[in-house]
Design a protein that fits this description.
mainly beta, Methylamine Dehydrogenase, Chain H, four-stranded antiparallel sheet
Length: 292
């Protein structure tokens, strides 16, 4: 396998591709965090940009919704965005001011669930835009990424509380402290049987069972700063190494393979499984990477 790189033909070379996901239309959808736009990229390289209502809204993490649209967090103006595959965009206010929405995922209940970094809350938004917030039993936790687990609960990383959280759709919450102090977990994904997460400060990948057992796997380069992670199947996960300029792969027993990116200091952020089955990552330098 090799990593190849494709520049994004967007209007602003400093747009800052950040989040990436595969849409229901078979295209890749990418947040351009610095230009307030969403990009749609087909597998043959056609790229379309959709401007949002504010160039400084900070679109961050993006995910497919149950309604056939793409949903994303707007970190800078503290709103939740929705965009159709035809490019029609709307946004919904969050009741708590300056909440800092970051991670977002489709929940098991037909709603979207998201983290609020600044206010120690998990939010839920319906397709009609109604938002409900659930307070966490900890302060200064910096909830980051979130995903739906194989048990039908929401699982999320608590970057500054050094823990993994689990919340039911009723808001009942349990926190699981990490064995490594100061690990600062960020990305999290489900492989269908367990949850996998990355520890950006410790240079490790972790796995947690739905009953809370945690195992950690050190990376060859402990300064790699792993950022986002996606599962392709049980015990098979891919992650970005923001500090090492690589895409990594980890197996169920902790074996790690790494792939260098062609451009130095590309700053890989979000990662997803593409419509072609390859692994794609968004690069801060104005490009996407593909590993196949």
């Amino acid at each position: 396998m090799t990593a190849t790189q494709l520049p994004l033909p967007v209007a602003d070379e400093n747009a800052g591709p950040y989040g990436i996901t595969t849409g229901p239309d078979g295209a890749l959808w990418i947040t351009l965090v610095h230009s307030g736009r969403i990009a749609r990229l087909t597998l043959d390289g056609d790229c379309t940009e959709y401007p949002l209502d504010s160039p400084s809204c900070g679109p961050t993490v993006i995910t497919p919704g149950p309604d056939g649209a793409l949903w994303f967090t707007r970190y800078q103006d503290h709103r939740i965005g929705r965009i159709t595959t035809a490019g029609g965009a709307t946004a919904f206010d969050i009741p708590t001011p300056d909440s800092g929405p970051y991670g977002i995922t489709a929940g098991p209940d037909g709603a979207l669930w998201f983290t609020q970094m600044n206010t120690d809350r998990i939010g839920r938004v319906t397709g009609e835009g109604k938002v409900t917030e659930f307070e966490l039993p900890v302060t200064g936790a910096f909830p980051s990424a979130i995903t739906t687990g194989p048990d039908g609960a929401l699982w999320f990383t608590l970057n500054q509380a050094n823990a993994i959280g689990r919340m039911t759709t009723d808001g009942d919450t349990v926190l699981y402290p990490l064995p490594t102090p100061g690990a600062a977990p960020v990305g999290i994904t489900s492989d269908g049987t367990a949850l996998w997460f990355v520890e950006i400060a410790a240079g490790q990948v972790g796995r947690i069972s739905v009953t809370g057992e945690i195992e950690e796997f050190p990376l060859p380069d402990r300064t790699a700063r792993p950022h986002a992670i996606v599962a392709t199947g049980p015990g098979d996960c891919w992650f970005t190494e923001w500090g090492a300029n690589r895409i990594g792969r980890i197996t169920a027993n902790g074996d790690v393979t790494e792939y260098d990116l062609p451009t130095p200091s590309a700053e890989p952020h979000g990662v997803t499984v593409g419509p072609d089955g390859a692994v794609w990552a968004a690069l801060e330098v104005g490009a996407v990477a593909r590993v196949s």
